[in-house]
Amino acid sequence: MKRGRNRELWEFEREMTSNGAEGRVIVGVDGGATSTVCVCIAVPGTAYFDEPPSVLARAESSGSNHNSVGDDAAKLALEKVLADALMKAHRCRSAVQAVCLSLSGVDNTSDQQRMHQWLREVFPGDVKLAVCNDSVAALASGTLGRLHGCVLVAGTGSIAFGVSEDGQTARAAGVGPLLGEPGSGYSISQQALAAVMRAHDGRGPPTSLSKAVLQRLELSSPQELIGWMYKDYSWARVAAIVPTVKSCAAMGDPVAVKVLANAVEELAISVKAVVRRLNLAGENGTKPFPLVMVGGVLEVDNGWDLCAQLVDHIKGFYPGVKPIQPKIEPALGAAMLAWCSCSGLTNSLSG
Q: Name one GO molecular function term (predicted).
């Protein structure tokens, strides 16, 4: 079998015998700006999932958003995580029945086609392949592979994506920090850093963020933030400050509280845009619909529960919303999507 561009990653296949039908697997990948996760599951015995499938193997690698890390680095991270997961599952690529790549930064047909072509080089033959935005797999992680409802992903970046009952799709945000992703980890951190600089030169009020951020970054003065930021303003590096912002907010710092309140407002706007375009809540806004919520920004940090605040805010205009925080990670959602695609049950993989 062709070994792809990075032959050394697949050397383990030389030591394995070809797997028969009883060893067939499905592969799902969730790739973001910060990290990439791949899981392998056994081929299910049913068309739909009534519960999350068991994971045979899991692997993790660096970020694979091509807009953030570059095309070559993204593909290398993806091939590494694919090879690592299959090696841990004791499977060759010949055992793979379907693969779904769900990637942040895959935003149009051109992106999909380019990544699909690359993936076919890694998995030649009759392997069923699907490529979609990471929001699609995130939705599937909360709905067991059934694409209906809305998902909000709030991590390093942010995006809202939805699918109506008749298969129509819509999205909001997900354009990267240069064009603006309010409510994302990058945006929250950037606003916090700006607040520190404003406090330093007198343009803004004093804030406990100043001391906390400098300690977090091991800097001695706010002036050093300039060099820190412009030395490497990669998205994940900046977004890592979010827990510090939540900690200051939990201690009552009004500047930090305002930054996070702005994030709640902006994330709610993204959800509202998708729900309205797809009419998920019905004409009067009370029709129930699932809202899957994933990403590090929505996790509780230092006692600050931004997700709960956001749900309360959204219920103010969509009282029928059914919030879901998946117990499984989006990579497993991607694996379920791969199987549904293989079974001809899912067509909305464009994100």
A: N-acetylglucosamine kinase activity
